[in-house]
Amino acid sequence: MGLEIFFKDIKTPITIIHVISVVFGMGSALVSDLLFSIFSRDKQLNDTEIHTLSVLSKVVHYSLIVIILSGAAIFFSDTYKYMHSVKFLAKMSIILVLFINGYILSKRIWPSIVADRFFYLRKEGNIRKTAFACGAISVTSWIFVCALGVLDKATIGYFAIIGIYLLLVFLGILISLFVEKSVFKE
């Protein structure tokens, strides 16, 4: 029980760190997606643009780590409450999606982008589609998890929340693939 008291005592500063991390992570992810769209209009990225996107990617990565660690500390301040919180469980599920999505972006997509073949080679079409889909997943997930964080409590169940989230992700992916197809006509 002593550990739970410790986490209750530090909950306020940890919550502040948690919120700041969400702001940095979400802000960097959204700015990165926007800048990528702007930078790629000429179907090439110069060194400055690559560096900018790389820095933003690192900010998102480190923010996610701090979000997970601070979220764990908040969780340990009242494990019973959070284990029974539909909102908390939905947020953790979406954070997991963000983590996996970020991994795919950094390990599968980013090497193609910096290798300067992403915009031109026909065989990179699937990578481009995946990149656009991952961008849609990122934007939708960050906004959705932020909206959940702002809500006092969820008035619907976990599966309803995840269902709405998945529907929005699906629509976002459809829109992103339409945009990809219109920009990269093959």
Tell me what you see in this structure.
- The protein has 186 residues and is an all-alpha fold.
- It has one domain (2-183).
- Helices cover 83% and strands 0% of the residues.
- It has helices at 2-9, 11-39, 47-77, 79-83, 86-114, 125-150, 158-183.
- The radius of gyration is 18 Å and the shape is elongated.
- The protein starts with a helix and ends with a helix.
Q: What is the H/E order?
A: HHHHHHH
Distance between the termini: 62 Å
Quote the beta fraction: under 5%
The averaged pLDDT comes out at: 89
* Structural domain tally: 1
Q: List the uncertain runs.
A: none
Structural class: mainly alpha
Biggest sheet statistics: none
Number of strands: 0
User: What form results from the Cα inertia axes?
Assistant: elongated
**Which bin fits the share of residues in helices?**
over 70%
Radius of gyration from CA coordinates: 18 Å
